[in-house]
What we know:
It is built from 3 helices and no strands. By secondary structure, the chain is mostly helical.
Amino acid sequence: xxxxxxxxxxxxxxxxxxxxxxxxxxxxxxxxxxxxxxxxxxxxxxxxxxxxxxxxxxxx
Length: 60
């Protein structure tokens, strides 16, 4: 049988401290940016399905 090690909680605490710290160089993404990206992507997919994008590309 494998011997159980009680260090799992300490390792988890270390990871929580590591990921809890914010870096000054990290990207800051707001919920509004996520909403706008989802709406924009949804609109683009809708236009592709309706053939609008191919119609615009045929103009050039």
